[in-house]
Amino acid sequence: MSGNGAFMTSRTLQTIGQQVGRRSWAEPWKIKMVEPLRMISREEREVALNEAGYNTFLLRSDDVYIDLLTDSGTSAMSDRQWAGMMVADEAYAGSRNFYHLEEAVHRYYGYQFVIPTHQGRGAEHLISRVAIEPGQFVPGNMYFTTTRHHQELAGGTFVDVIIDEAHDAAVIHPFKGNVDLDKLEALIAREGAARIAYVSLAGTVNMAGGQPVSMANVKALRALCDRHGIKLYLDATRMVENAFFIQEREEGYADRSIAAILFEFCGYTDGAWMSAKKDSLVNIGGWLAINDPVMFEELRNLVVVFEGLHTYGGLAGRDMEAIAIGIAESVQDDHVRSRIGQVRYLGDLLNIWRIPIVQPVGGHAVFLDAREFYPHVPQVEFPAQTLAAELYLDSGIRSMERGVASAGRDAATGNHHFPRLELTRLAIPRRVYTQAHMDVVAESVRAVYQARAETRGLRMVYEPKYLRFFQAKFERL
To answer: Catalytic residue at 469?
Structure first.
């Protein structure tokens, strides 16, 4: 593909459709408003990337053509959500929109007590401060950057107890997000149940490539936690997508609705935090929900210190209304099939061309296997960061690194964490791009893959103290 983004021909698309073995599908919505896109020249992209220190987070949005940096806060809201924002109640205390949000969480997620937060990491902060005592361990199904950081700031130590298959990009497994119960039991036996703060369970595990957790696994996990008196808290950020994979892959759920599966899954947990910027189709917002009234009182008091009154938690009334409506829209089966269908369309194209990606394709993104792209680039030279830079140079596509830069450093030794997965993520916003945009992305990935032998790695020249991948700067070796 050239830097100007030539599209595939209709004959090529027809051939791909035949190879994939399915009929075409269409999004369950129509476009009412458009936002213009433009691609700057290759020379301009080189200047922009150099000024950004080869970090796609530091690029200006105006210099990006197709933005797949994240699916967080980048989705398109519906006409109903925009209408809801116009009739919002902006009272400081007791806004009607808070009660709409509270009712939506009760109805679709099932938790008793709800606290709004400005976004997901605000909820991560609150639960970590209240539920973790210094010196405790927090086992979970693979780390997430901000979650682990808040757990560590509270004095906890994260322990990865995900199944081994999750650490191998090429392995096919229907539920690579599952907790390895033997690993968890071994941790409890070694450290004692009293030293386990809680089990931190994530749906569609981001760092594993958006891989789901089965209903059978969460049921067994609930029973294990009950035996040892340990709480089970859920990162529900992309649980709607997780429910889709249960519906598709797990026996007994094919005829259940997404909403019913989501409700059942959450029922096996003691509480959850949520970045509403993903599943709930909004640009900002989150919540923390819990079933324990004693803990709720402590959290409700603490949110006033860090976020705002417990009936707004750092959000405007209009944002809470958009979340409430977005929750209802997010569990519609047609919407979820379309959302994951677009991700799979991109993954199918890359599989046809034998480009190395995480298998099976997850719910919110296609993850490129940077180790396989650049076997000549050692992990200390940031191959996933390199791949994100090359994609931007080729076509103005913004992706992000999920490898050694994201993993950070060991707090005790100061050495890099070297995860087995060195990935570059193409996160697809919901209801934003068309199938043609996915064609352009796929062709760019193929062009970068074909030029892989000449690609050199990077070195880090500026490293922030916290969550370095957001603001670090690099240069070519």
So the answer is: yes
- pLDDT tens digits for range 377-404: 999 999 999 999 999 999 999 999 999 9
DSSP 287: E
Return phi, psi of residue 211, to 5°.
-90, 140
Residues 147 and 161: their CA atoms lie apart, in Å, by: 15
Which residue in the list 63, 67, 235, 279 is annotated as catalytic? 235
- Please state, in angstroms and as integers, the Cα–Cα distance from residue 445 to each residue in 1, 46, 287, 357, 406, following that order: 9, 18, 36, 11, 21
**CB-CB contact of 346 with 210 (8 Å):** no
How large is the C-alpha radius of gyration of the chain? 22
For residue 213, give the nearest of 161, 257, 168, 259 by alpha carbon: 161
The pTM (predicted TM-score) of the whole model is 0.92
- 470's CB contacts (< 8 A; 6+ apart) are 57, 464
Contact partners, residue 319, CB within 8 Å, separation at least 6: 85, 282, 284, 285
- 263 among known catalytic residues: no
Q: Structural domains in the chain?
A: 10-64+333-476 (3.90.1150.10), 79-330 (3.40.640.10)
Listed as ranges, residues in the chain with pLDDT below 70 are 1-22
Catalytic residue (one of 56, 70, 145, 455): 145
List the one residue out of 67, 426, 74 whose CA is nearest residue 282.
Answer: 74
Quick check: 459 and 470 in contact, CB under 8 A?
no
Spatial distance between the Cα atoms of 271 and 267, rounded to a whole number of angstroms: 9
Q: Is 366 helix (H, G, I), strand (E, B) or coil?
A: strand
pLDDT digits (tens, 9 = 90+) for 21-66: 667 778 899 999 999 999 999 999 999 999 999 999 999 999 999 9
Q: Is 278 a catalytic residue?
A: yes
Residue of 111, 144, 345, 449 marked active site: 144
Active site residue 292: no
C-alpha to C-alpha distance for 240 and 42, rounded to whole angstroms: 38
